[in-house]
Amino acid sequence: MCLHRLLVRAGVKKGALTGPNPTDRAKAGSKHHLLVEAHGLPLTESVTAANVHDTHELFPLVDCVPAVRMPSGQRRFRPAKVHGDKAYASRKNRLGLRLRGIAPRIARPGVESKERLGRYRWVVEHTLAWKNPLRRLRVRDERRDDVHFGFIVLGCCVMRLRRLYPDVC
User: I need a surface site. Which of 8, 15, 63, 134 has the fewest CB within 10 A?
Assistant: First the structure.
């Protein structure tokens, strides 16, 4: 499973989940957080303000993972390991993942290079590329956060449908 963040700039209209974007001259923006499985299909998603640090969103995403049926018939409620970029690196996150029985594979700033996670990171980048043609998710124009989050969920459903039935959409 991989984690990634994506900054989305908000329009003139603001919602509660918008905040000053630290990389875009403090314009109001939102972040989309995705948790994807090994083949790039999104499992859970969330929206935060652009100025909220990514480490705060790791556990709500991991705890929202639905039960997965295993080949032996039992259900697995947690992923075996989580790959993430350096934005999710903190001792608290690593310890929390270990307490949940999940092996953290998160690059540490100043210790490991970001290229080491490249073979797993492309899965998330590929999922974000699937998301780019969906115009409503590229630039946020909605004032209400529930409408914007609804479009994110709908976009993830479209990505899943395209994966299952490539000729339909």
Answer: 63
- The dihedral built from the CA positions of residue 149, 124, 160 and 162, taken in this order, carries a sign that is positive
Copy the structure tokens of residue 36.
């994807």
E strand spans, 51-164: 68-69, 75-76, 81-84, 103-106
Q: What value does the CA radius of gyration of the chain take, rounded to a whole number of Å?
A: 16
- pTM for the structure as a whole: 0.74
pLDDT tens-digit map of 38-90 = 888 888 888 888 888 888 888 888 888 876 666 776 766 777 888 887 888 88
Torsion, Cα 48 53 58 59, to 10 degrees, reads: -90
